[in-house]
Amino acid sequence: SFQGKEKFHKTVRFAQFYFIDAFILLACGAEFHLLSFHLDTTKDDLKRYKQRSVCKLVQKFPMASTMEITSLSAVNDFYSYIVLTAGSNRALEVFDLNAGCSTAVIPEVHTRSVHQICQNKGSSFSTQQPEAYNLFMTTAAGDGIKLWDLRTLR
Hints:
The structure is a single chain. The protein is mostly beta strands. The chain has a single domain (12-152), classed as Methylamine Dehydrogenase, Chain H. Helices cover 0% and strands 44% of the residues. The strands form three sheets. A four-stranded antiparallel beta sheet has the order 1-2-3-4, with no helix packed on it. The protein is globular, with a radius of gyration of 17 Å. It starts with 11 loop residues before the first strand and ends in a 5-residue tail after the last strand.
């Protein structure tokens, strides 16, 4: 295990690997952090107490007009620049990490805060049309499941 020098002002609610394990995404408060990391696996009995694994902040991405990110989704199985976040304000925000910014906000996605976002990551058991990777689902307690298309945001 290792820790970066970054101190988080609120509880980290979500953490996952991103971009085929090249980065780590952490959701904390109303923003998520993109972190780079390097794990040093060399074994040296004389220097085993010296920490040489590092974790560095690349960029912070604040979600607009919300108090807390309630759900975060990003594909790690293949190269995708899209990160989806949902906030306590019931909005969903689309981030393009290639451009380094938010590209869309959908207000009032559900009647309550979204607690789960699921992107289509494909399957090793079947093939899909390329357009299918633009689909994602959201769900909120007591408000069912909604299927969305990234191209139309509907």
